[in-house]
Amino acid sequence: MPPMPAVDGLPDTPCLLLDLDAFERNLASMRQTIVVDGGKRWRPHVKALRAPALAQRLQAAGASGVTCATVAEAATMVAAGIPDVLIASQVVGSDAVHQLAQLNRGARVIAAVDAPAHLAMLSAAARQAGVVLPVVIEVDTGMHRCGLPPGDAVVDVARRIGAEPALQFCGLMGWEGHTTAIADPTAKRAAVTAAICQLTDTAQRCRAAGIAVDIVSCSGTGTFPIAARVPGVTEIQAGGGVLGDRRYRTEYQIDLEPALYVRAVVLSRPSAQRIVCNAGWRYLAAWPTPARVCGLPGDVKLSPSAEHLTLDATEPLPDLPIGASLLFEVGYADSTVFLHPAFHAVRGGRLDSVLPIPARSAAPAPW
Questions:
Q1: Among 120, 123, 224, 348, which one is least packed by beta carbons within 10 Å?
Q2: What digits encode the pLDDT tens for the residues 56-89?
Q3: The domain at 20-251 falls in which architecture?
Q4: Read out DSSP for 55-121?
Q5: Half-sphere exposure (CA, 13 Å, Cβ side) for 301?
């Protein structure tokens, strides 16, 4: 997307822009790699996408359900008509566990577990709601966050799940996130494959013990081109890559197009080499990957505060007047999208549609 022309219908406050043409090309590329070439189910993670309308577009293009980070996200997706959801995290707390059980009255919402304590919580909530809760065991394949170590510990917990009438064991999931930023392609391929093989080998141990394993789920945008080709994996969770942020492209070396931007307006021109606009960190995340201003020459340093973003350049900047538009390529979608109420979807320099992003902590329940 070039420097921003005037587009009717955009607010003066910083707003989130989605280049629909680039989004659709990224979607087609990911689907080709995962579904067509890799032969895997595609269960895209929506913690960056957030808007149900975008999740529905991925379903229409061949995705099979979605992955979420929280019960609230899952409730939003179920309410939007997506009935097959994996929550790739442990669900704890009475309210969250109760909501999870209620969601399973009309959909399949799978939760991840990695300890017997999770089984007790989920089983009690399922019995109270009169449902059978589907679960997967999270396996630590090297990231050292959540998850059981690969091997016999997983088989033991799978047996315990099988002994709980209110729970259904569906399979295993893992996340090889520690491999995403490896720069050398050969070393990265080896590390991703080795991590995922711990997951698939553990699935085989479960099967050898007489335990059926339907789901072997893993991968994000930083690893999906490799993970899609690993035998034994049944589904890929990569989703945010359709937005093509700078982190995926520059730090993880994933071949996608930039599709996500924040539009801001110039507030002040203190000098020829300085612009102050209104895209502070309340609208444009500065962490973990900085944004990039589009269309300005030289090296431009971005210094964010809550409401202001100061641009300092090594050479005189164009004569952008107060009130002019600036466009920023988003550094990391996960930490930017949730700051906004909607995507402003643009095609060919014209506003196509406005796609609401539901409140992140208050998804309406479908019951």
A1: 348
A2: 999 999 999 999 999 999 999 999 999 999 999 9
A3: Alpha-Beta Barrel (3.20)
A4: HHHHHHTT--SEEESSHHHHHHHHHTT--EEEEEEE--SHHHHHHHHHHTTTSEEEEEE-SHHHHHH
A5: 7
